[in-house]
């Protein structure tokens, strides 16, 4: 633990610096590759949709010694038409999913008789054929609404370019998460969809923490003229790295315990579906705030004439010193007591002139 | 916890008086929060809200979600939805299951009706709520007390009025409208035959002629008040072309007949809503229903007629039936997951932040107490029920809440790394962390609100608890965590950077120790 703190201190002072922004092409390429693979898998085999999206019926029978074979035999005997899926759930539960049933009540009756349980003790779920469309439609509305509102919100609190970069990172997360679902073949249920939507909020939480620091570090860079936007942003990512790691880990811990209990004890259902989506999304969200959102922001800002001029000025004043690319290689050797432009900015926001303390 | 005395430190008397002020403020803020917690607990106890209301998935029951089917000419208006809720509630209440609920959810194009009935009621509910309710106008043939056993008061004559078969008479005699189960409604009977029916409120029963005018022939219905005040509130009713001629014929044929056969019953969903007497033939396609209406009764009747004109058909979206056994299992699993999540977060923050981690633990406990209290009171006030998805939302929120502390603590440590004393870092770090926390929580809040409005059924519970706990997070960070940190930053243990305080130079990864100690001496 204290090792992590030690790293935190070095990252904060800029002694250890990981070059996230300079090597952005590498990360873009990695994400691009995952997205392309995801798209291919999505196109060829698609998502593994639960009955909620297709319409159908589900029966859960609590019986200690029932096996999957018993379930298959029972459902065949009950006269359920079409394809059915039988799963053992937890220790003492059998879950049977079927397509839409005309003879729902008689199937249920028959199952109760076969397993020798009270008919009211069979847990059931019937899903209408249009339910899935309904959910998908609403999820889509939710997604669009969220992106618009958050764009406006971030534009107001930060700046338009931060909003764009944050949203790009968020959409990236949704793509990757959906891609992972397609790749692994996890079941997609309405709870999963809700998980996806919640990821949006989560992913942005992380990005907001990083961007808040970027904003602080870059506030007065044009007047000091010592560092480029990219270099200042890169320092911000490094300074918030431990924080990002901690917030993500702490957010993951409860989600992991839901996943553990949901998958382990209950077998399947809301808890498992929700927490799995969150788990996958949270991990991607942390990745994207660091590797996608901030480099994207730096790239957008560096195109501005003021930032270009700044980059030129920085290059003239200290040739070869503080470009994001050069920085990563050079700075580990620098100690705290070193002098010059580089160290003074690397000491963090304290030394930035004209910063008003609130 | 020993507060560092300011008197020993004459050099910085101004900063000490300032710090005395802030520590007073901090203590006050924590005290206010404590008093508020106790006060709200007292309110909860007084109101008898001692248990969190559990959703059906946690205690067993049946829930059905209905989505209005969009068909040509049908507009899903708020009025139509609330009328449909009314009709379904009438049907569900006939089952006499306590705590059954019928409620409309969502807005705009997202409206649904969610029916929840606790306990083991099985498939009955599903069949009950699915049918489309229809409106019909039927001539009254016989009207009587709700539990009368014969067609006419004079049983001796045994002559049945016109159009009444012995079979109808027998059914009429057998029908007891004081029995709730007979007030179920349902529009299964054909409009072409005579029927027996109860009054909606169970205060009367009827034999009714075949329906000549149907609900879809109504073109407009409004409640209005007679400005002269003579007639009071009334309902005006307009028919379309077909309705005009049919209603004309119906009213022509009944005027002049002896009561009750000069009445036309307005039957919605198989139950008589109103049975006004027809005073004259109405051929103009426009009628007024007067009576001793209040505003509410008049607009209710108008809404019934409007709804009848364009009845809503529903698609069965989802039917969920959970046995009490599974419900209990899910509740236990949810609680276990929550406990586990808590323990993991506690362990991590304690290992990483040492004594400072105890602040996280204390803050999370306060947040949980507030959340629990909110669940109790919202259950009492707004009928909030905790579902499995809701529990999941609350557990996920443990992480988000703890994240706020991490953001604050890391800021604090950054400030100390820059050479500030822990005491002043508690304030400067807070000012910087505050902004981040507010913005990040706002984003979570936006996500929760949108999820709530766009979500379907039980998932709203998730969004609701997520939003609620985000607000609680803000409250706790502002009113508890920050004041607590600024109090303890004045204790020797923290101010001296004890190696277990989470502020030791080693755990901060500091190289120059003198930097800190100097500040602390000063």
Written account of the structure:
The complex is a heterodimer of chains A (358) and B (522). With 358 residues, chain A is an alpha+beta fold. Chain A has 15 helices and six strands. In chain A, the strands form two sheets. A four-stranded antiparallel β-sheet of chain A has the order 3-4-2-5. Chain A has a two-stranded parallel sheet with strand order 1-6. Chain B starts with 12 loop residues before the first helix and ends with a helix. By secondary structure, chain B is of the alpha+beta class. In chain B, strand 2 and strand 3 form a beta hairpin. The radius of gyration of chain B is 34 Å and the shape is elongated. Chain B is built from 15 helices and twelve strands.
Give me some keywords for this one:
heterodimer; A: about 350 residues; alpha+beta; Multidrug efflux transporter AcrB transmembrane fold; Alpha-Beta Plaits; 2 domains; 4-stranded antiparallel β-sheet; two-stranded parallel ribbon; 6 strands; about 65% helix; elongated; disordered C terminus; B: about 525 residues; 5-stranded antiparallel β-sheet; 15 helices; about 15% strand
Shape of chain A: elongated
Spatial strand arrangement across the major sheet of chain B:
5-6-4-9-10
Mean pLDDT of chain A: 77
What would the CATH topology of the largest domain in chain B be? Multidrug efflux transporter AcrB transmembrane fold
Number of helices of chain B: 15
Order the strands across the largest sheet of chain A as they lie in space. Answer: 3-4-2-5
Tell me what the CATH architecture of the largest domain in chain B is: Up-down Bundle
Instruction: Give me the CATH superfamily of the largest domain in chain B.
Output: Multidrug efflux transporter AcrB transmembrane domain
Uncertain regions spanning at least 5 consecutive residues of chain B: 1-16, 153-158, 512-522
* Helix fraction bin of chain A: 55-70%
Number of strands of chain B: 12
Q: Give helix and strand order of chain B, one letter per element, not per position.
A: HHEHEEHEHEEEEHEEEHEHHHHHHHH
Helix content, binned percent of chain B = 40-55%
